[in-house]
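To: structure desk
From: M.T.
Subject: fold request, one chain
Message: Could you run this one when you get a chance? Sequence is below, nothing fancy, just the single chain.
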Amino acid sequence: MNKFLRVGLVGFFLFSAAASAAHFGLFVGLNEYSYISSDNWLNYCVPDAGAMRTNLLDQGGGWVASNTTLLVNSAGSKTAIRAALSNYAAKAVSGDVVVYFHSSHGGNDDVTQANVYLCSYNADYTEDELATDLSAFKTGVKMIVIVDACHSGGLFYETAAKSLDEKELVRQAARDWNLAERVTARMTDLRAIRLKTSRRLVAKLIAPEEIGWMTACAYDQYSYEDDSIAHGWFTYRLLQGFDYGDTGGDGWASFQELFDFAAVRIPYPDQVPKDFNPTILATLAGTAGALPAGDAWDYADNAIEGATSLAPSGSVQTTAAHALRLDLDESDFFAFPVRKGVCYTFRSTNTVGGGDVDVELYSYSAEAGATLIRYAFDVDYPANLEFELVYKAIATDTVYLRVKPYFDAGTNLTYQLAYSIGGTVDSMALLNGIPTNIASVAQDGYKDFVFAVPPGQTNLAIAMSGGTGDADLYVGAGYIPLSAYDYVSWSAGNDEWISITNPAPGEWFIEAYGYEASSNMTLVATCTPGAATIASASNSATNATFSVDLTNGARVSIYSATNLLPAGGHLTWTLRSNAATVVNGQVALPLFTNVPGQIISVGKPLDF
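Reply: Done. Structure tokens follow.
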């Protein structure tokens, strides 16, 4: 299972020039901190920094050990980091290359967001301080900043008394932690101030456009790391770029080539690396190998932008065999047009190799990016390792299916994707008021469900009860609550309850999370529609008039029938809403002629 941490930025500045130019490097990796609880320490920032230094030293790009500094954990104080940068700023001249790699937590100052910062071992290293230190370098020095953000959304904003869980509850959906942009702006401001006092001094100092930046994700996204690779994913892919990133065919890779290789190989659609100033990133990094040919190395469809377009029909269609490779080709994306209210079935077939494939379904918009809305694993482990996913479309749109490998052994597998219009019940759906049994949830495991809330509901109640162990409830409006959530219930045991007033219409995702291994729970979701109250009723022989007061924007239908009971004991109701009119705020409903004792129902037909 992939593990992600919500932490800060990792950055390193790399500069290269002609073969005779000097190369300097500062590499900072911080798993541990003196001012952050050990519960929130990291795992792979130190390996990230060490491996990046080693690769640059070994790949013939011009870096030598004597011109590099490695600061990890307690050695990486703010004073030590700033002193190392100051030292290299004094030494480096035009044409030289300087590398600064910083892997740590990071964030911004409370709700004010007055400063964004990297974390050093003992204090925040603010954007103003970083801008000041970068501005000390001489013009002509090639600087490349690479930011591997373990949490660029700004989890660690101030208010030390709050726990991480409390902070998560009050955090903003997207917090502005765009380090590259904000440091560049600070450098521009500093340059403008200095111009007023000494143009000659400014002309000798580096300009913001002389710094190339890479970040592991956008400012409002997470950056993920994984035990299986012992690195952050962005750094891991950059390191692989030295093996396979030579796209120019000259046996070398620039930092831009490393970035381009890494950017399309992150196995999370909600982590999108960013780059800035590509002319600086064209600086040589070192020797590199070329990407081998073959389907297993085709990574164009690893991202939504490269998704293969397919259109399901009533009959089952099957793609040609697709190959996936564990170390490089992480997944295949397929784009499907869907219609509201229609069920679609997707399944894998003919999977061959050292493992199986799983599936994730995403919605996408320019505003929200990629949002995970469904997933499916093995049909029947271990008897049937293929997946099957039935999706009932919430809207007419395009959805993106991602097939990704789960390897038990080996490094390659092939599969085919079968797809069609059809299916019965959505694979993850809960029905209103209908309990469902959760057979088991492992410790730190989860089981997700989706519940469709129609318009005009006054309340959404979600309850879990019974069984053994300790499972909690997490709820997300429009997204699966894996790394964030809107509501939570985490009482001891399995008795959990969440009540949401006036829920927004649409899909609500509910997750049962195993705080401890749990089994045999009952989960039920119930939504309550807006009410309609009839008042000021009067009628004539041909018309009934009355007021209808609606709560929470409820929409109601108006029915009418006689009071005569037909065979079977039920009234035959006739919908008359289309015939009703509103006059002076009152509903006017034409009555049946020559039918005495007519009954009117607002909202739902009564069942006598």
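Reply (cont.): The two ends are 55 Å apart (CA to CA). Let me know if you need anything else for the meeting.
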